[in-house]
Design a protein that fits this description.
By secondary structure, this protein is mostly helical. It is built from 12 helices and 3 strands. A 3-stranded antiparallel sheet has the order 1-2-3. Helix 6 packs across helix 9 and helix 10 crosses helix 12.
Amino acid sequence: SSARVYACMWKKFTTYAHSEKITITSLQHADANFLCDQILSISKSSSTSYPKRLSQLVSRVILHHWPTHHGALELPSMLEDNRKKDPAYLRSEAVGPLQISPITLSQDADWRTVRDSAIFALCFYAGLRLAEVMDLKMRDIEWDSDGFLLRIRGQRPRVVPMAKVGNPILDQWIKTRGEMLKTAKGGHPHVFISTATFKPITRLTVYRAIKHAITEANATSTAARNTFAARQIFNGTEADIIDEWMGYKTEFSLDRHKNAITRSVQHKEKVRNRNSSSQPSVNFLSSKLNRRPG
């Protein structure tokens, strides 16, 4: 699959080079700035990681033909790898306890508000991915003495407990959903439905639901999920347990959160104490065996 991806990327580069009349000779003598400009022009409507990946591909192909090509050697270092940026969080200025006031729902809230709040709650209070929210079925929801347990299937199968404050929100949606389905025909296995026609929700529905549930410019399912992970780190939950809840397969994912939080706290403390020359330290709570997220 990777070979097919890079073949498509190379085809895009060669098509652009042909349209711009960029010849083999001009590539042979091109400097890094020229190559970088072409990469950015090609990548205008692509993902944030595309320019870096394309630059690495172009660099390798050119170096295969001209091993001492200085422009190709410098090219990858001129573009930032956006995949290595710090994770996005909700209300990042509050990094510290990373607390957001619990969502409260009135008993007469309309069904869409209840549903959107429950979608947000699954990301923010249980750390679910967007696709996992979409795929969640009623059979995947269990209950123990402390609240809901969510059985996640697919590529990262696991059982995730929901933070206590999120239980009432999901419970209200399940009750609302049950009332709605009394007039429906046939079974509807998914937890979330998009309209009164009872169709499963789409990615766009999740995106809009998060925006509806919390008024914040940076509000996305990923930011909500990342904030869940960061909050568990501050609570002192053991790394293995956080990895299990989040579905992480490597230590790198959790380390990204720890490093981002450390840099953010240190920066804020440094701004607050401009006259201090000492480097502020970040003290997470001591590691403990939390069986329920906070």
